[in-house]
Structure formats: structure tokens, C-alpha cells
Write a structure and sequence with these properties.
CATH topology of the largest domain: N-(1-d-carboxylethyl)-l-norvaline Dehydrogenase, domain 2
Strand content: 5-15%
Order of helices and strands: EHEHEHEHEHEHEHEEHHHHHHHHHHHH
CATH superfamily of the largest domain: N-(1-d-carboxylethyl)-l-norvaline Dehydrogenase, domain 2
Low-confidence stretches: none
Radius of gyration: 25 Å
Organism: Roseivirga thermotolerans
Oligomer: single chain
Bound molecules: 6-phosphogluconic acid
Distance between the termini: 88 Å
Structural class: alpha/beta
Helix content: 55-70%
Shape: globular
EC number: 1.1.1.44
InterPro entries: 6-PGluconate_DH-like_C_sf, 6PGD_dom2, 6PGDH_C, 6PGDH_Gnd/GntZ, 6PGDH_NADP-bd, NAD(P)-bd_dom_sf, Pgluconate_DH
CATH architecture of the largest domain: Orthogonal Bundle
Subunit structure: Homodimer.
CATH class of the largest domain: Mainly Alpha
Number of domains: 3
Mean pLDDT: 97
Number of helices: 19
Family: Belongs to the 6-phosphogluconate dehydrogenase family.
Length: about 475
């Protein structure tokens, strides 16, 4: 009896995903060079739906045709190495699914190369961490639509469900799935940075204790700010460190690492000419955080008098965070809609909002509002142009402005909050002062300008 599904890379994600697939009635075979991981999986599964091997030929011979082989190995060279080792042994119609955070152009290259041998290749972002992989992640596959039908039943069964609907869908052509996952991670960076800025204001501006902050995030999580990241923030604030002298979070070094997906999102947004300043700010803050020793030195040099308390309520902070969350999703979705045109992905933003409602790191109650906005108007150009969303933003915006102002008055870095506010203020401005920039360009470089009152291209000899 052959297996329905094959998985290469039995690290935590791979092991958990294969167990998840088997929970839903599919048989699955794992492959890893590490004997310990192979034995660990067989032991943990404890049933004949799951097996594993360290031998590539046994693995390939054990799978039903067309073979459905998912890779959960680190992005980059390991993915190419696995593909090249399998390739001579695969048959026409076989399917390889890369479940890692691969860069989208790598996915396009692999897709085209494997297509020459009539092997289908999918880039499928998987979000939700180790637990998500075990109990139901959000899965973002892109690739050949017909071939997707072979993997659809397995992915739909293994994915998270919201109101019974699976958090997975065929998202588009070629590297569409990896691209969507990349932007998902960019939004993730933005939301995490926004939460950390609000935490900073709570801690240093309002002098709230960890217990008070935990209770506040817990309460927020019950209402419109309900989201995975709000929830885990409350959890984190309640975990004591091993010396029981305080919360563990206070003992953690304040240098944030990154594996690149947020930076890629920002870099690609700039290539496309799509502004996503909240994500940019989040990447920048991780960079600034990494220069810890310089910061320590600068802190000694710039001992400025710290303002007294922030004049803010937690309700105002909640409204500010909510508004900036909305703006962050709006930026990411705008990037997706422009990328879809540029790369012919044929993305459906309603479907993307739908599969982000559960399983993934950026899952949030608010995603249902986003889904509705794109369902109401399939060709909505920008989330902030939807009337219901506009009402939400209008109600909460004054609080975001006040929170930014207070944060700045206290000398706290509020880069992502301010980036969200400034983005919004620019986005909704009928007139921006960029007329002056056009005049300056024409002044020093004869770059010409257009006029508001009549058509044509103009140049002026500005100097008298
Ligand atoms: C997810 C996460 C996952 C991973 C991030 C972390 O959706 O499950 O995004 O993919 O945890 O890549 O990224 P950084 O290490 O760059 O913070």
C-alpha cells in the first residue's frame, strides 16, 4: 500500500505537518537523512498511516502517483539541493511543494526549470509556526491550477478552519504563493512593531506594571483588536523569569533578529513603487535595535530630561493600535494588488483575507472586515477606500495622532505608529506639497512639470 503524501525535512515543522495530515485520514511518508528524526516521527505517530525513511529510493517508491512531495527545509540552497537530488528519479506529472519562506524569484526559476520535465512545482507559504503546522496552519499555495487539484484535499483537510472554511486556496500562478507569504510576513513585522511601541508607551509613559499590561492586552484581545499577536503579547507579559524576580520579557536582550522576509517585502515594494512605510519602519527598528553597543553609548551622551507621564488613557492606545493595524493591512494588500498586475499573479484579495482569518501569525478578527470589503467590491483599489473601513478609521484616527504626539513628546521612538499616521494623512490628502518638488526639479534640472489648470508639459526659466 503506497502513501498519499510525502514530506521531506522532518524538523519540527515537517514532523508536525505530517502528523497533522495523518490526523485527517491521509497516509504520509516522511524522508530525512537524520535517523533520529525518522525514528522520532514513527514513534510519535504510533500508527500505520505514517512512516518515514532515510532512503530516497524507498521514499519515492512508497508514494502514490502522481507523487505529492512537500519540502519543509530551510529556504535557499537546501531547497535547490533537494530538488536536484530528486529530479532524475521523478516522473512526469509529479508534484513538488516548497513549504518554506523561499524568495519568490527562486520559486519562479524552479517552477520553470521543473516544467521542462513536466514536473509541477508549488511555492506554498505555510504560516502558524510549529503549533500551526500541527493543528492547522494557513497555507498559501501558488502554481499550476489543475495540478493543485491533486493536493487540494490534503491541504484543505490539514489547514486551519474558520466557520468550517479552510484557510488555504490556490492563490495564483507561479510564485504567487511565496509572494503572498512574503507580504504576510511584512504585515507581521508591522503589527509586531506597532504592538511593541504601544508596550513601550504603556511601560515608560504610563508606568504600567507587567500585570496591568497583561490585563490590558487580554481585554483588547476580546474585542476588535482580537488577534493572535495581541493574544500572545498578553501571554508573554505573564510569564515569570526563572529567577522569579520579574517577567521573563524584561530579561530578554532588546536586539531583534530577522531572517529576511520583512526586508524583502520592503525592498520589493520599493521596486514596485508601492508605499508600505509601516513595514519599512518595522524593518528599520530591527536594524536600529541591532546596534546595541552604540545605543548604550549614545544613551550616556544624550541624557535628556525625560518628560513626565504620558497624558493618555489605555482606551486611546487601543484606538491608536487598531487604526495603525488597519493601515498596515491596507499597505500590504495594496502591495499585493500592484504585484498581481506586475507579475500576472491574478490574485483575489478577498480569498487572501479569507485564508488569513485563521491559522497564520497575522490572523485577526479584523480580517473578516477586510474580506467583506473586497467581497462588496471585487475591484476595490485600496482598502482605505471602502466606506465601512473609512468609518472605523475616522472614529479612531484622532487617538492615533494623540498617541504619536505623546510618544514623541516623551522621546520614545514611535516609528511604526507615526509611519501609519503619516501614510494615512498623505493618502487622504487631495493636495500634497509635491507641487513644490516639481518646481524645484524644473528649476535645477529642467525636468518639466504639468499644471492643474490645463494640459501639457511645461518648463520655466526660473532664474531672473
Ligand atoms: C509564520 C512566520 C514564520 C517565521 C518568520 C519569522 O508565518 O509562521 O512568519 O514564517 O516565524 O519567518 O521571521 P523573522 O525571523 O524574520 O522574524
Amino acid at each position: 500500500e503506497k502513501y498519499d503524501f510525502g514530506l521531506i525535512g522532518l524538523g519540527v515543522m515537517g514532523k508536525n505537518f505530517i502528523l497533522n495530515v495523518a490526523d485527517h485520514g491521509f497516509s504520509a511518508l516522511g524522508y530525512d537523512l537524520d535517523q533520529g528524526k525518522v525514528e522520532g516521527l514513527i514513534e510519535e505517530a504510533g500508527n500505520d498511516k505514517v512512516s518515514a525513511t532515510t532512503d530516497a529510493d524507498t521514499f519515492l517508491a512508497g508514494l502514490k502517483r502522481p507523487r505529492k512531495i512537500m519540502l519543509l527545509v530551510p529556504a535557499g540552497k537546501p531547497v535547490d539541493a533537494v530538488i536536484e537530488s530528486l529530479r532524475p528519479k521523478l516522473d512526469e506529472g509529479d508534484i513538488i511543494i516548497d513549504g518554506g519562506n523561499s524568495f519568490y524569484t527562486d520559486t519562479d526559476r524552479r517552477f520553470e526549470s521543473l516544467a521542462k520535465d513536466k514536473i509541477h512545482f508549488f511555492g506554498a507559504g505555510v504560516s502558524g509556526g510549529a503549533k500551526g503546522a500541527r493543528v492547522g496552519p494557513s497555507i498559501m499555495p501558488g502554481g499550476n491550477k489543475e495540478a493543485y487539484e491533486h493536493i487540494r484535499p490534503i491541504f484543505e483537510a490539514a489547514s486551519a478552519k474558520v466557520n468550517g472554511e479552510p484557510c488555504v486556496a490556490h492563490l495564483g500562478n507561479g510564485s504567487a504563493g511565496n509572494y503572498v507569504k512574503m507580504v504576510h510576513n511584512g504585515i507581521e513585522y508591522g503589527l509586531m512593531q506597532l504592538i511593541s511601541e504601544v508596550y513601550d508607551i504603556m511601560k515608560h509613559g504610563l508606568r504600567m506594571s507587567n500585570v496591568e499590561m497583561k490585563a490590558t492586552f487580554e481585554a483588547w484581545n476580546q474585542a476588535e483588536l482580537g488577534s493572535f499577536l495581541t493574544e500572545i503579547t498578553a501571554d508573554i507579559l505573564g510569564v515569570p523569569d526563572d529567577l522569579e524576580t520579574g517577567a521573563l520579557v524584561d530579561a530578554i536582550l532588546d536586539k531583534a533578529k530577522q531572517k529576511g522576509t520583512g526586508k524583502w517585502t520592503s525592498q520589493n515594494a520599493m521596486d514596485l513603487g508601492v508605499p508600505i512605510p509601516t513595514v519599512d519602519a518595522a524593518v528599520r527598528m530591527r536594524e536600529i535595535s541591532s546596534f546595541k553597543s552604540m545605543r548604550v553609548e549614545a544613551a550616556k551622551l544624550y541624557t535628556l530630561p525625560m518628560a513626565e507621564r504620558a497624558d493618555l488613557s489605555t482606551d486611546e492606545l487601543k484606538a491608536a493600535l487598531y487604526t495603525s493595524f488597519i493601515v498596515t493591512y491596507a499597505q500590504g494588500l495594496h502591495q499585493l494588488s500592484e504585484a498581481s498586475k506586475e507579475y500576472n499573479y491574478d490574485l483575489n484579495l478577498e480569498v487572501i483575507a479569507k485564508i488569513w482569518r485563521g491559522g497564520c501569525i497575522i490572523r485577526a478578527k479584523f480580517l473578516e472586515e477586510i474580506r467583506k470589503a473586497y467581497s462588496f467590491n471585487k475591484s476595490l483599489q485600496h482598502l482605505l477606500l471602502n466606506e465601512q473601513i473609512a468609518e472605523l478609521v475616522k472614529t479612531n484616527l484622532p487617538h492615533l495622532a494623540k498617541v504619536c504626539a505623546e510618544g514623541m513628546r516623551l522621546g520614545l521612538p514611535v516609528s511604526a505608529l507615526a509611519a501609519s499616521l503619516n501614510y494615512f494623512n498623505a493618502f487622504k490628502a487631495e493636495r500634497l506639497p509635491l507641487n513644490l518638488i516639481q518646481a524645484q526639479r524644473d528649476y535645477f534640472g529642467s525636468h518639466t512639470y504639468e499644471r492643474l489648470d490645463r494640459p501639457g508639459i511645461f518648463h520655466t526659466e526660473w532664474e531672473a
